[in-house]
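Figure 6 in text form: structure in, sequence out.
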């Protein structure tokens, strides 16, 4: 069941030697953090064996290895989503690559719709748990007992505290909440959004959950932050669009970048 993480890590190591501490997945609007990496080596996904390339506009599709605030990082600028292929373990090879390169921690980012009035478009939301509404799972087909993965503390409590402290240090508000995964690519209906509110979700989106499951499976610690781009369907006066996601994502993303830099400083 394993992917091509070893082969991809070999390509990265041939271009830049070293071992890394944190892997970051940058979703819509967050790509610019990849351009701020120091001593950076950039490798297009097309040069990495079996690395999935996203067809979503606003995703750069390159791996960037280097230093961020003194921490050796590997950034995946752009991710493949389940809805692009129908394969829930499409991110297996990228996550194996991070693990193979030494990353102990994964920090995933995404764009999401808010279900709560106090979590406003343009703001970041720290994910503290998730609901896997899709019914899909990247571990389906795994054959040994490691497939019965404990998800009790999937979003690492210590890293969450450190991210909250980092936000405080840089004077940014950081709301917290539960992220609910819908397969996409169509947005949710207003009825689905009302259901999600009742079920205890605070934001909805089309990514991240399968990556979190895979990263935990591979033994990495995980944290995730959403940039809120809109209110969920039916909660705002106008309809939803990918254009709005692209337009709004950079607002929360600028705040997430500040928080991530402060977090990196704290662990350097
Ligand atoms: N729903 C699902 N995914 C999203 C949304 C949304 O409202 N906004 C940004 N990504």
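Output sequence:
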């Amino acid at each position: 069941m394993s992917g091509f993480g070893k082969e991809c890590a070999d390509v990265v190591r041939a271009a830049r030697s070293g071992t890394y501490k944190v892997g970051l997945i940058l979703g819509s609007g967050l790509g610019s953090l990849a351009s701020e990496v120091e001593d950076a080596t950039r490798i297009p996904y097309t040069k990495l064996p079996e690395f999935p390339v996203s067809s979503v506009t606003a995703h750069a599709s390159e791996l960037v290895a280097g230093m961020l605030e003194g921490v050796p990082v590997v950034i995946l600028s752009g991710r493949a989503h389940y809805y692009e292929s129908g394969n829930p373990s499409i991110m297996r090879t990228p996550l194996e690559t991070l693990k193979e390169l030494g990353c102990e921690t994964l920090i995933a980012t995404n764009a999401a719709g808010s279900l709560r009035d106090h979590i406003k478009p343009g703001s970041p939301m720290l994910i503290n748990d998730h609901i896997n509404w899709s019914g899909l799972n990247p571990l389906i087909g795994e054959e040994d007992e490691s497939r019965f993965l404990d998800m009790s503390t999937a979003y690492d409590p210590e890293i969450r505290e450190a991210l909250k402290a980092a936000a405080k240090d840089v004077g940014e508000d950081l709301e917290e909440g539960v992220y609910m995964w819908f397969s996409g690519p169509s947005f949710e209906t207003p009825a689905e959004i009302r259901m999600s509110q009742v079920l205890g979700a605070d934001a909805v989106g089309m990514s991240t959950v399968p990556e979190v499951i895979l990263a935990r499976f591979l033994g990495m610690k995980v944290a995730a932050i959403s940039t809120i781009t809109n209110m969920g369907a039916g909660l705002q006066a106008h309809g939803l669009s990918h254009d709005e996601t692209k337009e709004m994502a950079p607002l929360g993303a600028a705040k997430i970048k500040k928080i991530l830099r402060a977090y990196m400083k704290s662990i350097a």
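Caption detail: The two ends are 35 Å apart (CA to CA).
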